[in-house]
Structures are given as C-alpha cells and as structure tokens.
Amino acid sequence: MGVIAVTDYGVGNLKSVSNAMHYLGLETVITGEAADLERADAIILPGVGAFPDAAEKLQTMGLDRVLREQAQKKPILGICLGMQLLFDRSEEGRPAPGLGLIPGYVAKIPTSNKLPHIGWNGLQIRPDVPLFQGLPQETYVYFVHSYCGVASRPEDVIATTDYGTTVCAAVGRGTVMGCQFHPEKSGEAGLQILKNFGEMIR
User: Fold this and answer.
1) What is the CATH number of the domain that holds 46?
2) Active-site residue identified among 80, 148, 168, 179
3) Could you report the per-residue pLDDT of 49-89, keeping only the tens digit for each?
4) What's the structural domain count of the chain?
5) Is 145 a catalytic residue?
6) Which end of the chain has fewer CB atoms surrounding its CB within 10 Å, N or C?
C-alpha cells in the first residue's frame, strides 16, 4: 500500500482530510515539502479561501511546478479550492494562473440562488468513472463555494450538480481529478470516493 501526500500550503482543511484517510486505513503524510510530494504514490490538494491567494502560496513555495510534474506520474485529487486550482485561471479577485492541468477557467456560479452555495446536493455522475465506483446517481455530497470550474473540454467533467444552473462538481483528465465538494465532509459517500482514490495506488 502506498503513501498519499496531503499538500500543506497554508490554505487547506488538512486534518479532516487526513483523518478521513486514516479512518479508511490509508497512509498519509501532511507536507509542504517538494521531496515528500515526489516520493508519494498519490497527492491530495485541498484548499479553502480565495484562488489568487492560494495560487500565490503554491508559487512562493515552488509547489506549482512540483504538482505539474507529479501530475504526469501519479494520481492527484484536488478538493474544493484545490480542484479550482487545477484549471488554467480564475476570475475571482485579481488575475492569477492556476496549475493548467484541466483546460478551462473558474468563474462565479451563474445562478439566482443564494451564494455561497452551502449544503448538500445530488451528483449526476458520468458512467464508469473509477472515482465514483459504487455510488448511485443523485448521491448527496457537501458543497461550500461561490465559484466553479468551467471546463474547455466537456469530457473532462465527470460529475455535475444543479444549483439553479448546472454546476461542474467534479473533473477528471488522466490521473488528475478534482471534486468541488468536500468528500471528507460528505459522510459514507465521501468516504467511498476517498477509498476509490486510494485504490488507484494499490
């Protein structure tokens, strides 16, 4: 069984992610060190807060380059803001580049519903996606966000949700995956998603 690195760059809900992985029997290390990310068998990129600040912290620590390199070699899962950072750029606040691992950008959710979107919503899952193995359509998961990914390639969207409009809820391109929702706060369904991610390195 391999080691999953939970990336520490000062803006993530690290403990809850790590605790969920530990509960599943998955070995994790919380780290902001490039060498640890390179040694790990898979990487989780969590994140809360504003896109420009998070992108700047990744750049300052030199982790943006490391994550781009490692994405070619091993599974990476972005969670919430971590998923948004997988895109090329964001319209939130000042201009800031993302990691460019998923073609597209991040924009404010175009909805008349109240923002931020906080609460449980059902997923419309693309069939045969390994990350969602064992989960039925309309599985409910927990969201906290005002911005969402806009993928350039429809095939990179592996799940959507409805919040007065269709919202990108998860993306996947090769070994790069992202969940706009918080699997670590989504009960049994979220644990199943994290378990499925862990299975990718067995």
Assistant:
1) 3.40.50.880
2) 80
3) 999 999 999 999 999 999 999 999 999 999 999 999 999 99
4) 1
5) no
6) C
Catalytic residue among 92, 182, 188, 199: 182
22 counts as catalytic: no
* Catalytic residue list contains 188: no
Beta strands in the chain (DSSP E): 3-7, 27-31, 42-45, 76-79, 87-90, 102-108, 117-122, 124-125, 140-145, 147-151, 157-162, 166-173, 176-179
Give the active site residue among 69, 184, 188, 199.
184
The values of phi and psi at residue 13, to 5°, are: -90, 75
Q: Which residue, among 196, 178, 180, has the nearest Cα to 188 in the 3D structure?
A: 196
Domain of residue 135: give its range: 3-199
Using the CB atoms, write b or e for 85-94: b if 16+ within 10 Å.
Answer: bbbebbebee
